[in-house]
Amino acid sequence: MKQAFLQLHLAVLLASCSGIFGNLISLDPVLITGYRMLLASVMLLLLLFIKYGRIIVGRKDSHILWLGVLLAFHWIFFYGSIKYANVSVGVVCFCLSGFFTALISPWINRKRISWVELLLSSLTLAGISLIFHFDASFRIGIVLGFVSSLLFAFYATLNERVNQSGQVVKTTALQMVGGTFAIGLLLPFYHVSKSSLSLLPSWEDLVFLILLALGCTVCMCMLLNRAQKTISAFTVSLSFNLEPVYSILLAVLLFDEDKMLGTSFYVGLSLIVLSLVLQMVYQKFSSQ
């Protein structure tokens, strides 16, 4: 059990590095996402082929490919938020996905809205509103982060059913393939609108992209897959609430982002952390 918890928290830590690499890589958000998904899909498909000798994809897997498209657009807006603001703002906006999920999940799954979850997650909305109101320089980044969290709420809700199969590695591989194809189709039109855009990464960017795909996608997926064999999905969900906290701490240590952030950010962040803590406590007692 201790090993499983270690694997889980390593997975959360790796996931929190996604925004860090997004800030380090000088490429456009579309290209960051495209290369990440391309490299990750190659790595995961290779792992599946080595383990099983073949990869079987049926008609029922087609919706998994579409989920990859949704994930790709979430990442594009997420990295856009980081580029227009910073890592801290990007991951703070990501916390809004809990608020959106509280609205979207009951609608898609035809269940009653949990007003307690909605109320608790609305503290996140209040926190981000506070940052948006006082820090005008972050507004474009916050809007992009707002869209990113909305897309992730749809993705997480739909992906919940897919993950019940227990084939996390295969599911992730297919989603990476779906996202890669979607960006591949989008790229020619996107390049026309931005003719000065460099499509090829520098050697430094390539190293960061490989680390992003290998660490934040492949290794994170493998660790999560192993941890879920012992640890409940509920515990996994609670643990991933720590992801934005880890990301902000790393951003402060690596990029000195604390010097870029004013009092309003920390007041807003306090409301968001309070929201996460209250949601964890509520979920713990409601599951008993």
UniProtKB/TrEMBL annotation:
Membrane-spanning ranges: 35-52, 64-82, 88-108, 115-134, 140-159, 171-191, 206-224, 231-255, 261-282
The UniProt record lists the keyword Ribosomal protein: no
InterPro entries: EamA_dom, EmrE-like
Keyword check for Transmembrane: yes
Alphabetized PROSITE patterns for the sequence: PROKAR_LIPOPROTEIN (PS51257)
Source taxon at top rank: Bacteria
Name of the molecule in the record: DMT family transporter
Classification of source organism: Bacteria, Pseudomonadati, Bacteroidota, Bacteroidia, Bacteroidales
